[in-house]
Amino acid sequence: MIKTVIFDMDGVIADTEPLHEQARNVLLRKLGLDVERISPTAIGRSKRAFWGEVSEKYKLPYSAEQLTVKEFDLLMKIAEESKLKPSAGLCELLEYLKQNGIKAAVASSSDRNYVECILEITNLTDYFFATSCGDDVSEAKPAPDVYLLAARKLELPPRVLLGVEDSPSGVQSAHAAGMTVAMVPDQDQPSAEIAALCALVAPSLA
Questions:
Q1: From the centroid of its chain, how far is CA 124?
Q2: Is the link from the previous residue into 190 a cis peptide, with omega within 30 of 0?
Q3: How many CA atoms lie within 13 A of 23 on its CB side?
Q4: CA 27 to CA 68: how far, in whole Å?
Q5: Concatenated DSSP letters of 92-143
Q6: Is the Cα torsion angle 77, 80, 5, 106 positive or negative in sign?
Q7: At residue 5, what are phi and psi to the nearest 5 degrees?
Q8: Cβ(159)–Cβ(2) under 8 Å?
Q9: 73 exposed, middle or buried (CB, 10 Å; 0-12, 13-18, 19+)?
Q10: How far apart are the C-alpha atoms of 153 and 144, rounded to whole Å?
């Protein structure tokens, strides 16, 4: 029996992916770098891995950590100005879980200050019992670290937890942590290999 549903942030709780791209591109331009050539290489990777490579390749006077913080600062400003709304069907789903005594949590590769900012903007903070974030762990998704931390915070075994993801790396992360996985693909449909890791693949949360 599932006792807690753990939601990914970006692409699941809200459609924030375009905001990430916007913040990344603003920072690349500020650094005087080629946005069209460099920005696409960030897709599917952690911000720290991306900025670490960019900093080393272009000999920037900033560390991966400093550049990641700069991007998140820009991202939060953009999010606050965007009037971001929760994903379709999410509020109804959270209400259903609440009424049926099932807790909700967040497991995101993004940093905590950003995760908390998005939950506040979307008025969802009170729905979530716990949050596990990228700067709480040493390895980003697809490593299971962020989901295993969520399980420890919830004081529940992974087998009674359901992870809701939109990306292949997120699905791999929740599955590697020993959880049941549901996928709501953000853009492309999952490969047969990724779909096989999921108990459910649905077009939306509605």
A1: 15
A2: no
A3: 24
A4: 10
A5: HHHHHHHHTT-EEEEE-SS-HHHHHHHHHHTT-GGGEEEEE-GGGSSS-TTS
A6: positive
A7: -105, 125
A8: no
A9: middle
A10: 14
Cα–Cα distance for residue pair 196/177, rounded to 1 Å: 16
**By three-state DSSP, how is residue 62 classified?**
coil
| 8-state DSSP, 163 | E
Cα dist from 178 to 93, 144, 163, whole Å: 23, 9, 10
Nearest Cα to 25, choosing from 12, 13, 41, 9? 41
Q: Are 10 and 146 in contact (CB under 8 A)?
A: no
What are the pLDDT digits (tens) for 33-53?
Answer: 999 999 999 987 889 999 999
- State the Cα–Cα distance between residues 141 and 12, nearest whole angstrom: 15
Contact 97, 104 (CB under 8 A): yes
* pTM strictly above 0.85: yes
DSSP single-letter state for residue 11: T
For residue 160, what are its two tokens? 């009674």
- Burial (Cβ within 10 Å: 0-12, 13-18, ≥19) of residue 82: middle
Q: Does residue 168 contact residue 194 with C-beta atoms inside 8 Å?
A: yes
Of 61, 178, 76, 56, the residue nearest 120 (C-alpha): 76
Kindly report, residue by residue over 124-174, the tens digit of the pLDDT. 999 999 999 999 999 999 999 999 999 999 999 999 999 999 999 999 999
